[in-house]
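Researcher: Following up on the earlier apo prediction. This time include the ligand. It's 2-acetamido-2-deoxy-beta-D-glucopyranose, with the SMILES given after the sequence.
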Amino acid sequence: MLRNLRSYLLVALLIALYALSKFTKITDGLEKYYEMAEEAEKNANKAEYIPEPNHPKSSHHGGSHKHGSSSSPGVADPYDFSKSKWLPSKTNCAAPPTGMIFLKKHKTASTTFRHMLTKYARFKGLPSVGEPQLIGPQGGCYPARFDERCWPATGHMSPIVALTYHFRWNMDLFEEKFLTSGVASVTTIRDPETTFRSVYNYYYLNHAGKVSKCDMPCWGEPFRSFNNGREDLPVGEFLDNLPKLFNASETRNFRSKNYQAFEMGMDHLNDNTAYILRNLKRLDQHNFDFVVLTEYYYESLVLLAKLFCLPYEVLYEPQLNKREYEIEPLTPTQKKNFETYFKADIMLYDYFNKSLHHKIEDYGREKFHQEVEKLKAVYEKCEEDVKHCLWKKAPRMNPEDLKITAVPGEKMKVQDFIDLMDENFGWCSNPFNPYTQLKLWQKTGKMTYGDECNYKQDILNNFEL
Ligand SMILES: *[C@@H]1O[C@H](CO)[C@@H](O)[C@H](O)[C@H]1NC(C)=O
Ligand SMILES: *[C@@H]1O[C@H](CO)[C@@H](O)[C@H](O)[C@H]1NC(C)=O
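Model: Understood. Below is the ligand-bound prediction.
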């Protein structure tokens, strides 16, 4: 009896050991990759390059841009996608991108896509996998349009090699300065109603009754203020009352009006159709090489692989379990209100869907669908065993060979940051939001962040009074 038990235990132990070794093998590649990604994010705070003195630091806001399309009152051919900034047929894999700008939009699967593009940087051996953020996960003085005063004190590379954190697009600045040849630019969009539900849960409902000790987004807003402090209004009731509740002067009001257009640099309060179309056209023709639609995941990956001249393996990401929500369909009134407040986002989604489908036509529809099947087959194998998706990173390229220079940074004035927040719906009254803490620092010379929050260190590194 006892002997029997012992041999059972032995067999069980052997099975466990075998499983463990197999598991270790499977996860090894991924583990390494995530370690690298994390390390990259941390390292982002250390200068990897030697600053070059006497590089003037300029700031850009407003200003007209070269193409003139934004100043024309009408919108000729708003849907002329043959003029899109990038088409598959324009790809030149003899000179693939040596820089990338990824606009990491909120609640649009952007973390997954950021991982993918970080892997591109490693695969190619680009001299950076990501510019460092200013505070926490974001930079550029979000929600203000990207402002060059908001580069962190460690400086940045020029031309840009990898800009992939949360920021708000700035068409004037990027067209003039950042979107040089060899720099590919990408972002992700998602069905507007699904995105809004996700935004409402994430910033508001899931944070009811909590005070974050490390608050970047100004949790709860604008929904909490719209409701006089109430923290549990169901989304349907919110949409029923949106026209009464909405306050265009409230902080973070863009989360309940044209959030995606806002992050892509548009004025979210301008519902003029010609204005919206003019800007969508400008985004398509002069700003983004490709806009991913998360609802066209595999199609988007084929196009991304084409844009970056990549084997599909490199873009592989394990599919995370999607959270399932009980979804009450919107009533006709709620739908009507939603469509009023998200007019630009609905137009934007439709516009870039058309743009994506034009790219598919340009690729050759037949051939494109074969590629989608190929990619899916590759990913099924990776799903079984990640070994199928391992790849070797290229040796690190030399910034000088790429004519990339380091622009030194300087500390940002606290007051400049506060002004930018005040002008761009970025102020906040939550106690551990950087805005509150910077004001406190100004007033008392101290911040009250605890050890659990690294924003204090970011602030000390990047700001001066
Ligand atoms: C709208 O928001 C601003 C900024 O918080 C506030 O001062 C103002 O009182 C609000 N207006 C209404 C009608 O609640
Ligand atoms: C996107 O465009 C295609 C082609 O025009 C259309 O068939 C499809 O319904 C659109 N998808 C969405 C989600 O709007």
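Model: Residues 295, 353, 357 surround 2-acetamido-2-deoxy-beta-D-glucopyranose (ligand 2) (CB under 6 Å).
Researcher: Noted. I'll compare it with the apo version next.
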